[in-house]
């Protein structure tokens, strides 16, 4: 009986680990995609996207610009976009 319980627990743990690895890979892919799109949209290469740059290169970011730019600085950073995308 104990061997059966151990086997079930081991399989459950292995499944959980596999799912966590897949989620981590998806997050890394999402971060990479966001970084690539951000870099392409950041026409003046200052590490910030204005609303105009977002409208031209990242329309979904432009739609949520005010929510991402919580401090009302007039620009958003890649880290702010990734944080919003994680929600």
Q: How much strand?
A: under 5%
Specify the number of helices. Answer: 5
Radius of gyration: 20 Å
Provide the helix percentage. Answer: over 70%
The low-confidence parts are 17-28
Report the average pLDDT across residues: 81
Distance between the termini: 42 Å
Broad shape: elongated
Order of helices and strands: HHHHH
SSE arrangement:
Layout lengths: L1 H40 L9 H7 L1 H5 L1 H4 L9 H8 L2
Helix pairs in contact: 1-2
What does this structure look like?
By secondary structure, this protein is an all-alpha fold. The chain has five helices and no strands. α1 (2-41) crosses α2 (51-57).
What descriptors fit this protein?
elongated; 87 residues; mainly alpha; 74% helix
Give me a quick take on this structure.
The chain has 87 residues and is an all-alpha fold. Helices cover 74% and strands 0% of the residues.
